[in-house]
Q: What sequence folds into this?
Protein backbone atom coordinates (compact mmCIF):
# COMPACT_ATOMS: atom_id res chain seq x y z
CA UNK A 1 0.00 0.00 0.00
CA UNK A 2 1.39 3.38 -0.97
CA UNK A 3 1.83 6.32 1.36
CA UNK A 4 -1.23 8.17 -0.02
CA UNK A 5 -3.51 5.12 0.25
CA UNK A 6 -2.27 4.49 3.80
CA UNK A 7 -3.04 8.11 4.67
CA UNK A 8 -6.55 7.91 3.17
CA UNK A 9 -7.26 4.66 5.04
CA UNK A 10 -5.89 6.15 8.28
CA UNK A 11 -8.16 9.20 7.82
CA UNK A 12 -11.15 6.85 7.27
CA UNK A 13 -10.20 5.01 10.45
CA UNK A 14 -9.92 8.26 12.39
CA UNK A 15 -13.38 9.19 11.11
CA UNK A 16 -14.86 6.20 12.96
CA UNK A 17 -14.03 7.63 16.38
CA UNK A 18 -15.24 10.59 18.41
CA UNK A 19 -12.59 10.62 21.13
CA UNK A 20 -9.06 11.33 19.97
CA UNK A 21 -5.76 11.46 21.79
CA UNK A 22 -4.21 14.93 21.92
CA UNK A 23 -0.81 13.35 21.31
CA UNK A 24 0.30 10.10 19.68
CA UNK A 25 3.79 8.97 20.69
CA UNK A 26 5.88 6.54 18.65
CA UNK A 27 8.99 4.56 19.40
CA UNK A 28 11.44 4.54 16.48
CA UNK A 29 13.28 1.19 16.21
CA UNK A 30 10.96 -1.59 15.01
CA UNK A 31 7.94 0.73 15.42
CA UNK A 32 8.35 3.46 12.77
CA UNK A 33 11.26 1.80 10.98
CA UNK A 34 12.43 -1.83 10.64
CA UNK A 35 15.90 -1.64 12.21
CA UNK A 36 17.96 -0.50 15.21
CA UNK A 37 19.64 2.87 14.64
CA UNK A 38 22.81 1.74 16.38
CA UNK A 39 23.28 -0.97 13.73
CA UNK A 40 23.20 1.54 10.88
CA UNK A 41 25.38 4.30 9.50
CA UNK A 42 24.34 7.95 9.10
CA UNK A 43 25.31 7.61 5.44
CA UNK A 44 22.54 5.10 4.71
CA UNK A 45 19.09 6.02 3.45
CA UNK A 46 16.56 4.71 5.97
CA UNK A 47 13.04 3.50 5.25
CA UNK A 48 9.85 3.47 7.27
CA UNK A 49 7.33 0.67 7.67
CA UNK A 50 4.84 0.82 4.74
CA UNK A 51 1.95 2.50 6.62
CA UNK A 52 4.03 4.73 8.92
CA UNK A 53 4.24 7.92 6.86
CA UNK A 54 0.58 7.80 5.83
CA UNK A 55 -0.45 7.39 9.47
CA UNK A 56 1.74 10.31 10.57
CA UNK A 57 0.29 12.59 7.88
CA UNK A 58 -3.30 11.52 8.67
CA UNK A 59 -2.80 12.32 12.36
CA UNK A 60 -1.38 15.74 11.49
CA UNK A 61 -4.29 16.40 9.08
CA UNK A 62 -6.71 15.67 11.96
CA UNK A 63 -4.84 18.12 14.20
CA UNK A 64 -3.40 15.40 16.42
CA UNK A 65 0.18 16.06 17.51
CA UNK A 66 2.85 13.37 17.28
CA UNK A 67 6.00 12.78 19.34
CA UNK A 68 8.87 10.33 19.68
CA UNK A 69 9.99 8.35 22.73
CA UNK A 70 13.06 6.29 21.87
CA UNK A 71 15.74 4.65 24.02
CA UNK A 72 18.19 4.61 21.11
CA UNK A 73 21.79 5.12 22.26
CA UNK A 74 22.55 6.81 18.91
CA UNK A 75 20.51 10.02 19.02
CA UNK A 76 22.57 11.56 16.22
CA UNK A 77 21.78 8.71 13.80
CA UNK A 78 18.07 8.73 14.74
CA UNK A 79 17.79 12.49 14.13
CA UNK A 80 19.72 12.22 10.85
CA UNK A 81 17.32 9.50 9.68
CA UNK A 82 14.25 11.56 10.65
CA UNK A 83 15.71 14.44 8.62
CA UNK A 84 16.51 12.24 5.61
CA UNK A 85 12.94 10.88 5.67
CA UNK A 86 11.56 14.44 5.72
CA UNK A 87 9.56 13.91 8.93
CA UNK A 88 11.70 15.49 11.66
CA UNK A 89 9.62 18.69 11.83
CA UNK A 90 6.37 16.74 12.30
CA UNK A 91 7.10 15.88 15.93
CA UNK A 92 6.25 18.30 18.75
CA UNK A 93 8.63 16.43 21.06
CA UNK A 94 11.57 14.15 20.32
CA UNK A 95 12.82 12.36 23.43
CA UNK A 96 15.61 10.18 22.06
CA UNK A 97 18.10 9.01 24.68
CA UNK A 98 19.35 5.79 26.22
CA UNK A 99 17.65 4.94 29.50
CA UNK A 100 16.90 2.06 31.84
CA UNK A 101 13.53 3.54 32.89
CA UNK A 102 11.40 1.78 30.23
CA UNK A 103 10.42 5.18 28.83
CA UNK A 104 8.82 6.63 31.97
CA UNK A 105 11.40 9.43 31.96
CA UNK A 106 10.72 10.03 28.26
CA UNK A 107 7.00 10.50 28.99
CA UNK A 108 7.62 12.79 31.96
CA UNK A 109 9.70 15.01 29.66
CA UNK A 110 7.09 14.87 26.87
CA UNK A 111 4.36 15.85 29.34
CA UNK A 112 6.43 18.77 30.66
CA UNK A 113 7.31 19.93 27.14
CA UNK A 114 3.78 19.69 25.69
CA UNK A 115 1.57 20.26 28.73
CA UNK A 116 -0.60 17.34 27.57
CA UNK A 117 -1.83 14.97 30.28
CA UNK A 118 -0.67 11.37 30.12
CA UNK A 119 -4.31 10.17 29.89
CA UNK A 120 -4.64 12.18 26.65
CA UNK A 121 -1.79 10.28 24.96
CA UNK A 122 -1.63 7.14 22.81
CA UNK A 123 1.68 5.25 22.57
CA UNK A 124 3.02 2.63 20.13
CA UNK A 125 6.13 0.55 20.89
CA UNK A 126 7.59 -2.84 19.95
CA UNK A 127 8.90 -3.66 23.45
CA UNK A 128 6.35 -5.04 25.86
CA UNK A 129 8.25 -3.83 28.94
CA UNK A 130 7.87 -0.24 27.69
CA UNK A 131 4.14 -0.80 27.05
CA UNK A 132 3.69 -2.12 30.60
CA UNK A 133 5.61 0.71 32.28
CA UNK A 134 3.99 3.52 30.29
CA UNK A 135 0.49 2.01 30.68
CA UNK A 136 0.93 2.21 34.46
CA UNK A 137 1.43 5.96 34.02
CA UNK A 138 -2.07 6.23 32.50
CA UNK A 139 -1.09 6.31 28.80
CA UNK A 140 -3.08 4.10 26.40
CA UNK A 141 -0.29 1.90 25.05
CA UNK A 142 -0.24 -0.54 22.12
CA UNK A 143 2.35 -3.24 21.48
CA UNK A 144 3.37 -3.51 17.82
CA UNK A 145 5.14 -6.68 16.70
CA UNK A 146 6.02 -5.70 13.12
CA UNK A 147 5.87 -1.93 13.13
CA UNK A 148 3.01 0.53 13.12
CA UNK A 149 0.25 -0.30 10.66
CA UNK A 150 -3.40 0.55 10.07
CA UNK A 151 -4.63 -2.39 12.16
CA UNK A 152 -2.59 -1.24 15.18
CA UNK A 153 -3.79 2.36 14.67
CA UNK A 154 -7.42 1.10 14.80
CA UNK A 155 -6.68 -0.90 17.94
CA UNK A 156 -5.01 2.09 19.57
CA UNK A 157 -7.89 4.44 18.77
CA UNK A 158 -10.43 1.86 19.96
CA UNK A 159 -8.59 1.35 23.25
CA UNK A 160 -8.12 5.10 23.69
CA UNK A 161 -11.86 5.69 23.07
CA UNK A 162 -12.79 3.06 25.66
CA UNK A 163 -10.36 4.48 28.20
CA UNK A 164 -11.56 8.05 27.68
CA UNK A 165 -15.26 7.07 27.87
CA UNK A 166 -14.66 5.13 31.10
CA UNK A 167 -12.78 8.16 32.48
CA UNK A 168 -15.74 10.38 31.57
CA UNK A 169 -18.15 7.95 33.29
CA UNK A 170 -15.91 7.92 36.38
CA UNK A 171 -15.89 11.72 36.42
CA UNK A 172 -19.68 11.86 36.19
CA UNK A 173 -20.09 9.91 39.45
A:
Amino acid sequence: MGEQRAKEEALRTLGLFQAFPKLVVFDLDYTLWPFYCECRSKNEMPSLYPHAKGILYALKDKGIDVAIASRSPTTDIAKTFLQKLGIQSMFVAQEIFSSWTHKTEHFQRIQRRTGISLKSMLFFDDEYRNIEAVSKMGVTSIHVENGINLEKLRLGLRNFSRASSSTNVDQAD
Remarks:
- The longest strand covers residues 65-70.
